[in-house]
Amino acid sequence: MIFKIKSYFFLLITIALCLIKNDIFSKIIEIKNSEQNNNFHNNQSSPINSHVDNFVEVLMGVGFTKASAEKAINVLLKACPLEILREHSYLIVPSTEKKIISFAFNINNSDAIIIKRNETQYEAFLTDTELAKKLVSERITNYSEIKNIIKIDSSENKFNKNISYEKIEFKKGDTLLRLLKDSVSNKTKLKRLIIQVKDIIDPYKIKIGTEGSLIKINNQLLAFYIEINSKEYLLATLNGKEYKINKVKKNELESLLNNKLTYTNKKKNIITRVNIFNNPKYIIKNNILKKGESIYEILATYKIHNKEIAKILKSIKPYFDVKKIKIGKTIDVVFYNKKFLGLSYKISKIESLQVVKIENTYKAYIYKKAYKKKSTQSEIVIINNLYNDSKQVNLPKGIFIELVKLLSFSLDFQRDIRKNTKFLILYENLYDYNGNFITNGKILYSQVSLNNNKVEMFYFENSFGQGEYFDNNGKSIRKTLMKTPIDGARLSSGFGKRKHPILGYNKMHKGLDFAAKKGTPVYAAGDGIIERANFFGGYGRYIRIKHNSEYKTAYAHLSGFSRGIKKNIRVKQGQIIGYVGSTGRSTGPHLHYEVLYYNKQINPSKIKFKEIEKLDGENLINFYKQRDKTIKILNN
């Protein structure tokens, strides 16, 4: 039996009864591109809203109320933007006259999204099309025992290159103008902002120790807040082209910021959890980026007109800097029916940049693979050294590097680690819905047993979705400066008087030397601004970072600087700034590391730095809950 539903500009929809497994019938609503689609973008202002309205009406046609249909479609949108659906996509609904609990979308004859009702809310799941048909038609709602399915967590729908958070603390000599100068490049706008702030506080007389945060999207300042007193914050949010300043209560801050960030993300939904180009009918050409090439040159080799290439680059610009694509990386160019359809670039093992042609324009998306997590535990007992012993227990290299970086805040690897020191690490592995390994995830917990002392760290995400590591009591493991700004290096020379290996006489050694292979990454010991990055006499290639009005750090004898490192650039703690070398007055590859306090070198190993953050309120309560869950996993 076949019958037609209303024809739309975007969709020509037919409902047919299709026989599937177990002699149970399901309705298959097929979605095809109508001829009217081709020029639709030329005369309609909101095509995406038209998609949503049309799908809402389709669901209402099979028994949904308008409110339920809108809720269901909003959940679907977080998994798969409707405008990317192409020929042969179809909707699967159960044929029974009972209330519909779940329905599914076949995306590309391979992947399907199931939308399932859970009391008053809807949830999205990713699986293969055949399994989706079975689950929907048989009205199966308990997926806990089903292996080849993944629940799509909308909280993961964040493109991590997009929104960043930067903690600020006012030191001696700091003003609000100085702290915002790097974030608001337009001087006129910055002056207007400072004038508005004056209505609430004096921006030039903010107390030393006052804390706050800068929140940026694509390096544009979206919002910032600073503490006024124990109960209130000054909150500034970007509205259009100007900032709006408010005094808000401490317990209201998080919800106001979340509303702002949610609204910003809704305006530009660029996340898809389904691979746009996973279709056997598409022809994918792999292109390795060569020296001197860019996306422009690669597309030009396929005789794509320069005006089209300009449109493509314009669609990418708000979300990704194509200059970051390194030589040797692969850019896929996609064709369908011998016509150019789009391109794809793998940013990481989880994220890809995908640009697709929709009618006469191009849209950029971030394809973020849906995954399920499995926790894995490893124990290391030091026999030789941390690196070799971690290899003996098959600890993944990426997890090892991250572990060393995190422990650098709390441990001096030369002094603290001895034979029989024990390390316990709990980390994630990520898998697709077919159970194929994708990559390692986060470190969830680590413990180092040092004599009678335990150094622990737990991973926790606060209400803004910021992930950090904290000790057992909710204190951040991050300090003002890292103790060791380099991975797995040997301390070859300490602070104090020594016989200089080249000059041959006793001389004060005003830093620490870490022996390491040439090219070993060197990290910024703390947040700050680069004061100099150049060749500096006997120091060779040299970087100095100003962290606040008191502290600076210096890194010498480098073989080279990391890309983009130069004077006046702001860097984050743990960011790679350079690489070990032997430039200047040096006998072999090593890092010379100095800490300067009011411009005078001091012994880095004797400094006790305070923690950056201590959780409180609702965040602390949630941290304790998460900590207890982690301990339960360890005990099991």
Note down, in words, how this protein is organized.
With 636 residues, the protein is α+β, with helices and mostly antiparallel strands. The protein folds into 5 domains: 2-151, Nuclear Transport Factor 2, Chain: A; 163-267, Nuclear Transport Factor 2, Chain: A (Roll); 289-359, Nuclear Transport Factor 2, Chain: A (Roll); 372-470, Roll (Nuclear Transport Factor 2, Chain: A); 490-606, Glucose Permease (Domain IIA) (Distorted Sandwich). The chain has 12 helices and 36 strands. Strands 25, 28, 29, 30, 31, 32, 33, 34, 35 and 36 form a 10-stranded antiparallel beta sheet that branches. Strands 1-2-3-4-5-6-7-8 form an 8-stranded antiparallel beta sheet. A hairpin with a 5-residue loop joins strand 30 and strand 31. Helix 2 crosses helix 3. It is globular, with a radius of gyration of 28 Å.
